[in-house]
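W.,

You were right to be curious about this one. When I first looked at the sequence I had no strong expectations either way, so I just let the prediction run and decided to look at it fresh. Below is the sequence, 530 residues in total, followed by the output.
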Amino acid sequence: MDVMPLLLLVAGSAAIAAAGRRVPVPAPLLLVAAGLAVSYVPGVPDYTLDPHIVLPLLLPPLLHTAATDSSYLDLRAQVRPVALLSVGYVLFATFVVGCAAYLIVPGLPLTAALVLGAVVAPPDAVAATAVARRVGLPSRITTILQGESLVNDATAITAFKVALAAAVGEGATWAGGIGEFLIAAVGGVGVGLVLMVPIHWLRTHLKEALLQNTLSLLVPFFAYAVAEQVHASGVLAVVVVALFLGHRAWEVDFATRLQEEAVWKMVAFVLESAVFALIGLQLPVVLKGLGEYEGVDAAWYAVAVFLVVAAARFVWVYPATFLPRLSARVRAREGEMSWKGPFVISWAGMRGVVSLAIAFSIPLTVHGGEPFPERNLILFLTFTTVIGTLVVQGVSLPPLIRLLKFPAHDVQAETLAEANAQAQASRAAQQRLEELLADERNTLPAPLADRLSTVLERRRNAVWERLGQANPVTGESVDDTYRRLSREMIGAEREVFVRLRDGRYIDDEMLRTLLRRLDLEEAAAYRETT
């Protein structure tokens, strides 16, 4: 097996993603553009998306990291709009896009058109999360988009299976499709509920952070595989387990949390970068065999399907947002909503690698050995829809949000809330410290007791200091000054340790121990001011 193409893909996409952090263009768009350009460089191999790799190996970790970064409480508060988008909209888009494609493309059977509708129906979890992080959407809109993208893949995959069964001649019915969807949904949630408690118990009882993080890396693949084994939704199983683990993450020890955050940030960065690059690299693959549809006809079909996909989301989102608000109970529970939020939600429906992976899973033949009707055209229209939504909507979304002038985050209010929370926690810690010191079994030297109190006092005051003014001399905030001075002091210590190692006063093992302590101190100084 030649691993060089894989290494080049990972290294190249990571480098482009890193460059994207320094330019105003979102990194996903740079990666897609780079993939399109590189796909025609002589000697570059075909990176054909294999659904047997993308769905069980790439999708679970991406869903896991998105779900653990989400808020279970926020998602529960937005369960109605999330459900309407992740289930209702996906089924609506499947039907609308399928019927439109049937009318637009001569000779395309309705069953094959519905397969196309199911393929392009779900907005992508990776794209939604990447764009939301970059443009700084209001928290409620971000929660809705993330919640939708976590669940809609399960709906789309089930709708695809039903449409595909009808297209290949397996006699699928609407009743059978609804039954299959319910079995997949209930089964996926059920598998997640069964697995989440024992997995969390195992995490909290493993004594080493290394073992706990190894388990963390295995969890999404295990949950997905178990659910798929019983013909349930692996997507929903992964999401349920990840939401529970994220909600209860405070119960594991600090070393695990620090290491787990670093590990999953690296995994998400590598996978997201590779996924967007892979989208662009599919162009030569989807153009092969397009045959009779090459030229103006194919371009017209692509533009028409993209416009239908974009318009269908507006047609669904606005009624789904405002019709329930005719109820006084819904208005009281969810508050008022201007037209701006639904507009952004409608325009933020970027498609991604999941749609392409599903499209590539379409079989070459139907029952009887006949070729699957217009399979290559479906692949092409899926590709152009994905590229169109990423480029058109992804590029225009940041200026659109600036134009709509959403209320900015109230940093002062958020800092005040953080300071109040820290003050309450510090009072509880001080009370506990006094109780421990009053116990005769905990007789401590005065310097140690003073040190504990000093650390607690510093943690309590750090957030309040953030409410202060900038340094009038340097122009730095209190945060920046504290961080800069702390790093200068720690840097001086680090240089001494290295000099002692070079002079053979300490060995390398001791140096690593001392440097790790300084690293933790520097991390603590940084976190106290962020």
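Here's what jumped out at me. The chain is about 75% helix and 0% strand. And, maybe more interesting for your project: Residues 174-205 form the longest helix (32 residues).

Coffee later to discuss?

I.
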